[in-house]
Amino acid sequence: MPPVTPRYPGYPLRVLLPAVMALVTVACSGPEVAPGERIYLTGEGHDGRVAYRQGPRWLSRGQFGCAVCHGADGAGRFVQAGQAAGAAPAITARALAARGYDAAALSRAIRDGVAADGRELSYYMPRWQLDAAEMQALLAHLDGL
Ligand code: HEC
Fold first, then answer.
1. Which is it for strands 84-88 and 52-53: parallel, antiparallel or unpaired?
2. For the segment 4-38, what is each residue's pLDDT rounded down to a tens digit?
3. 28 C-alpha to center of ligand 1: Å?
4. How far away, in angstroms, is 34 Cα from ligand 1 center?
5. Domain limits, the chain
6. Does ligand 1 lie within 6 Å of residue 70's CB atom?
C-alpha cells in the first residue's frame, strides 16, 4: 500500500478564519464617523478632500474642515490668516436660525459665500464645492450642533 498523504480537512478553515477575523476586526475598529461629521471635522468628502475656493493659505496644509475655524462644537473662534485676523462666527443650529438661515440659505453661504441677508462673506470663509449628498450630510451635522 502506498503511504497515504495526510489530508488536512481543516486547512481552508485554518487559513480563512484568521483572515475573516482580521477583516471583522478592521471593520469594527474605531467609532464610525458619519459623513457630515467627517466633512465638518476634516474636510474629507466621499471622494477625498472637498475642493474649495478662497480661504487662508494654511488651510490646504492639513486635514481641515469647518471645525478649525468654527470650532468642533460650532461655537465659533478667532481665525488668523496671514496679517489678517477675524472671528469665525458661531454656526450652531440655534445661532444660524437666529440669523435667518434655512437649508437653502445655508448651502448658498457654504458654496457661494453669500450670507442669509445677502451680504458677501469675507475671503476667509472658503467657498466649498460640495456635491448634493455631501451638502445634505453636512447640513444634517450642523443641525445637531
Ligand atoms: C478658514 C476659516 C474657515 C473655515 C475653514 C470655514 N469657515 Fe465658515 N466662516 C469663516 C469666517 C471668517 C466667517 C465670517 C465671514 C464674514 O462674516 O464675512 C464664516 C462664516 C460662515 C457662515 C456664515 C455665518 C453667518 O453668520 O452669516 C457659515 C454658515 C459658515 N461659515 C459655515 C462654514 C462651514 C459649514 C464650513 C465647513 C464646510 C466653514 N464655514 C469653514 C471662516 C471659516
1. unpaired
2. 666 666 656 666 566 656 655 555 555 688 999 99
3. 34
4. 21
5. 35-143
6. yes
